[in-house]
Amino acid sequence: MKRYLVIGAFLAIFILGSVTGYFILAGQNSVKTYPQENQLNIPVLIDSLEAGNNIELVIQNSVHEFFSGIKSATKGFSQSYLGPTIRLYKGATTSIVFRNDTEDYTTIHGHGLHVDGKVDGGPQSKILTGEIKNVLLPIVQEAGTSWYHPHLMDKTSAQVHAGLAGLYIIEDSNSENLPLPKAYGVNDIPLIIQDRSFVNGKMKPYVLTNGKIMEDGLREETLVVNGTINPYHYVPAGWVRLRLLNASNARFYRFFLPDDVPFYKIATEGGFLNTPVAITEITMSPGERNEIMIDLAGYNSLSLMAEFLPADPEYQIWLSSNPVQRVLELRVDNTLIAEGKLPDKLNDINYYGQTDMQNAVRRNLFMHMANDENNMFSINGNSMSMDVINERVKKGDMELWTITGDMMPHPFHVHGVSFQIVTHNGQSPSEADRGWKDTLAVTEEPSEILMRFNHSATDEFPYMYHCHILEHEDAKMMGQFTVTD
Ligand SMILES: [Cu+2]
């Protein structure tokens, strides 16, 4: 039954998409059209080596013009909205100094980084108003795309929504030697994808007006990419590499190209896949990153599209369509030089095997949405408390975690590690999902993940595992764990 509903929805999208130029579709929420196009903002790149491994970011209140001439109240890292992309290198230690010039305390988490709890930036690592915090990040993991964002108790959703998010791009000898597109902002393009609401061109400030928003998470109407509305970007007539980050508070998207033009997935959160995998769509929950490559040879223009997925796919109504919006129009400029191609081989992932599974310490985590007031959102019946360590892990042990969740898909994120998927919602992972990950949307069908924690997290600075729907995280669907010898 569900399959037919999905097919019906796709059909409706196709028909409506054809007449609207794919930009805006009807649905339960009608979406306003914003005809003007804007050149894609590319976040400033700070190369940690060129910066002498010494970087300062100011967490600031600001104003940002999503629509030309209309100022919205925002926050950013040394800029009006979002933060610079910071390029880190495996084997190097980078010092990042965060200065908090805002009225709220915050913490800055390195999402995807394999670093000790002390520098992971969890809720314990407060940066008070006016405080300057120096964070030393020794990078030991392989090339990949991670990100930084606040991770304080109760206010993560509001601070990320205001604009506090930025990318870490990690490079290593493998990523440098592969013949991939590597010109940042030219054919290696970061896309920080979010949804926001606008009233007369002004971004609607973050407010949880009712319990429904908390249950579903805040889901808004207009796509914003790198702080740009309805963007285009000029690219060479060859291979283009897109680093996708779903930095939305709660929305899940299905990304695709018109007419199901195939593209390639080359990396998940924690590194490259072994080989590129041809796909025609990719679904991403909040917190997830994927790198994809698109061949623009023979095109004048090609648009990456996003279908806004419903909070609970079970309630998809027959023939009702989900909204679809353009993420980015790639416009070919033949004067740009196309360097880089799709390699046959990308990585040499050491897959965990049967022995690892048999020897693993097993844990079950159940992400629960309840309606009783005492214990609203929880994992294994416990709502997040900074005074409670929920799990204790021994450093170096194999860990097999079985994760389930009720009511709707929950993007489960675990700190300090990359994991491999054994099963995802009861199914074996496809080739495109057999990479290193740190965030995975789980349902009532069990998902099993295998991992080994090689860094330390103490009682004072534990790691977190939690739902990456930020409203659920703030509602305490989160737990703490230590990793010790
Ligand atoms: Cu959740």
What does this molecule look like?
The structure is a single chain. With 485 residues, the chain is mainly beta. It folds into two domains: 1-344, Immunoglobulin-like; 354-484, Immunoglobulin-like. The protein has six helices and 34 strands. It has a seven-stranded mixed beta sheet, with no helix packed on it. A six-stranded mixed beta sheet has the order 1-16-24-23-18-21, with no helix packed on it. Strands 2-5-10-9-7 form a five-stranded mixed beta sheet. A hairpin with a 2-residue loop joins strand 14 (222-225) and strand 15. Mean pLDDT is 91; it is low at 1-32. Copper (II) ion binds at residues 367, 410, 467, 469, 472, 477.
Q: What's the story with the biggest beta sheet?
A: 7 strands, mixed
Which range does the strand content fall in?
35-45%
Shape: globular
User: Compounds present?
Assistant: copper (II) ion
Structural class: mainly beta
Mean pLDDT: 91
Order of strands in the sheet with most strands: 15-14-11-17-22-19-20
The helix tally amounts to: 6
Radius of gyration: 21 Å
CATH superfamily of the largest domain: Cupredoxins -  blue copper proteins
Percent in helix: under 10%
Which architecture of the largest domain does the CATH hierarchy give at level 2?
Sandwich
For this structure, the CATH topology of the largest domain is Immunoglobulin-like
How many structural domains in the coordinates?
Answer: 2
Q: How far apart, in Å, are the first and last alpha carbons?
A: 50 Å
As residue ranges, the low-confidence spans are 1-32
CATH top level assignment of the largest domain: Mainly Beta
Total beta strands? 34
